[in-house]
Amino acid sequence: MELRSQLLIGGEWVDGAGTFTDVNPATEETIAEVQEAGPEQVDAAVRSSREALPGWRDLDPHARSVLLWRLADLLEQHTDELGEVETRDNGKPLFESSKVDLPSVVQNFRYYAGWADKLGGETIPVSGPFLNYTLRQPVGVVGAIVPWNFPLSLAAWKVAPALACGNVVLLKPAEETPLTALLLGELALEAGLPPGVLNVIPGRGPVTGQALVEHPGVDKVSFTGSVETGKLIMREAAATVKNITLELGGKSPNVVFADADLEAAARGATTGIFYGKGEVCAAGSRLYVERSVKDAFMETLLERTSRMVPGDPTHPKTRLGALVSEQQRDRVLSYIEAGTEQGAKLVAGGKPATVEGKGYFVEATVFDEVDIDMRIAREEIFGPVLSVLEFEDVDDAIQQANQTIYGLAAGVWTRDVGKAHRFAREVQAGTVWVNTYNRYDSASPFGGVKQSGFGRDLGRYALEQYTETKSVWVALD
What we know:
The protein is built from 15 helices and 22 strands.
């Protein structure tokens, strides 16, 4: 596939109001100068979407299903190429891009292709001589704004269910990682999706994102990203009372009880924070270990951490790639400095790294003796930095786990079934993993509570985010 750097609007590749530079974070080399959608191009994209909406909304649902399945087939055929582009754009290991992310993208489109012709309402018994039934209808024009950590995966989380429900989508990828979103647009056209059903408009948040959120022709915004940007979107969307879904940040607790399989827990704790370089919303960045086993557990954890060595992301055996940008690397390093200054004990990593003298890498980093009031325990770092804390019993674990503004995910490791279910019930999180971590499936919902946002991606629950329910009353007398 040929790399695309223009905007996709109405089935045509067009220039924007300017350009921005897309850099490979592992080599610091420029990949492309990408066109940026300014307010004029956003307006053109919205008009294109509105023109395409009636035809797509009223299309036979089975025909929509066939087109989405065809798109999934094309994505599967181009898995290797898309994985390579994702790695160059984001810095994540090729293993993650091609063996984890891309298969999940294909699965998502196939899953929602299956839903396209199964969306229906219900008949409701009501008082009086009336027939009452509901219709499930598309929201309309959806603005999907996705982050840079899982560029194509999170695009699929939003685009697939929105299209399956009969909506049209304006996809705004992150400025750091626009390339696979543009290739998704190309494959959508090849699959036969009508022009304007999926428009792709790269650009910076304050330019393209703001114009998209403010536009009165956009009916819904689905956003995944930072808490601060989510708050801004809420404020801007209020002007036109837009339907919004927000999946925001996290500071997820990963809790290890003394009765757990400690080897499995150490493995889960390591992947929970270092998978995706820690640039994962649900990363298990707060590790709580029961005091009685903490010393023994730390030995195993640190031995596993020592294997997480930064390497060339294109090498098939690399498991710790480059952070997405120089700015993000410097942000992560500033938190490591803050952890040391506030009295945490640095027991692994903590330094920047390069591969062949280049790249925005950071060593796998672990802090012990962390206090909940420290910044590294309270704020989302979004990098390979683990904070280890300890607890006394199940009550203490639950209390500490909930001591955060976030509520995206949580993990618990224990052989005690009752303890596991109590923790799952009482922890304030949208997803809870028991004796595992970082598991996802197209059929299972994902989203947060508290300042981690509201609404759900994935599963049948995502369909509720992209449809409106209409109640119809028919007099029978």
